[in-house]
Specification:
This protein is of the alpha+beta class. About 40% of the residues lie in helices and about 15% in strands. The protein has ten helices and nine strands. The strands form two sheets. Strands 1-2-8-3-6-9 form a six-stranded antiparallel β-sheet, with helices on one face. A three-stranded antiparallel β-sheet has the order 5-4-7. It is globular and about 55 Å long. About 5% of the residues have low confidence.
């Protein structure tokens, strides 16, 4: 049954072209998500992602920054960006997730494609369009929904690709009129805690401690420790360690950087500390993760789930 809204929707309907390792890849996932499957910590993947909430409310955390979402907000996530969606308690929320990869170095088209992908690099990559511009952009996605119902041929796949590029162009052209504004928190402590998480993501390579952060943000260590756990679900030290581990995972998977250099780059004081903390959260060593890590990232999830004990008090 189709969802009666500006964006066509059918629960558990999906369209896939190629796989996540291919230079050209698409996965359109129409489904519901609820509070019970919220991720524990932010994840990353090697392709682009578009998230569109279709009903209710939700939020997105991107590199430690909190963003409230309302229906039809469009979230653009570039590769390797740490992020997670949080759904509230209650009925599941309908959403469309689009994972994709487009080779931006295509001869003659490279510069044009980079312009179409430019909105992914915005400081706040969330777009709330006016009615007319949203209808125009969503029209291309609705065409893709319909094309996905047809017998799969090279021509229908090419048409899906063409329509999606038109969608990207429509959003890019509408960017100057984006009306999305990050939400102001009602209580100052929540605002301060998310300012601290954002600071951690920008400065994880530096020496960070409860004492240092409490002084920098003018809050007592005891109060910071208590409120940080209350807002994020993690202790401050665990949050710092997980941010460092996530960034180390990216370097292990996608670069040839030496592990000793990754140790310093991600803020660990020694290889033994890096190895111990990495094992704590990933149950494997950095070298073994580099060897086998990509095999643990499947097209279904495209992230490596941190264990529950990382939420220790």
């Amino acid at each position: 049954m189709y969802y009666n809204a500006p964006l066509l929707y059918e629960q558990a309907y999906s369209i896939t072209i190629n796989n996540a390792e291919a230079p050209l890849y698409y996965f359109f996932d129409y489904d519901e998500r609820s509070y019970s499957i919220n991720m524990e910590f932010q994840h990353f993947h090697q392709f682009y992602e578009v998230h569109i909430l279709l009903d209710g409310k939700a939020s997105h955390i991107i590199e430690g920054d909190y963003y409230a979402l309302q229906p039809y907000d469009i979230v653009f996530l570039r590769p390797a960006l740490l992020h997670k969606t949080e759904y509230p308690v209650g009925a599941p929320r309908k959403r469309l997730i689009i994972n994709f990869a487009i080779p931006a170095d295509t001869p003659c088209l490279g510069g044009m494609l980079r312009q179409a992908l430019a909105p992914f690099d915005a400081e706040v990559p969330i777009y709330r369009l006016g009615d007319a511009e949203r209808a125009s952009a969503f029209g291309y996605l609705n065409d893709i929904f319909t094309l996905g119902k047809q017998p799969r041929t090279p021509l229908t796949e090419l048409a899906i690709h063409s329509k999606f590029v038109e969608f990207l162009c429509a959003v890019a052209q509408a960017c100057p009129r984006n009306t999305y504004v990050p939400q102001e928190f009602d209580d100052s402590i929540t605002h301060k805690i998310y300012s601290i998480t954002s600071y951690i993501h920008s400065n994880y390579a530096q020496e960070l401690s409860l004492d240092y952060i409490s002084k920098k943000f003018f809050i007592s260590p005891y109060y910071l420790s208590h409120q940080f756990k209350s807002v994020t679900g993690f202790t401050l030290i665990n949050y710092i360690q997980m941010t460092r581990v996530r960034n180390a995972q990216q370097l292990l998977l996608y670069t040839d950087m030496k592990i000793a250099d990754i140790t310093a780059h991600c803020g660990f004081t020694s290889f033994s500390q890096f190895n111990r903390v990495f094992n704590k959260f990933c149950h494997t060593s950095p070298s073994q993760f580099r060897l086998n890590g990509s095999a643990g990232i499947t097209p279904a999830n495209n992230y490596i789930q941190l264990p529950a004990e990382s939420r220790e008090a």
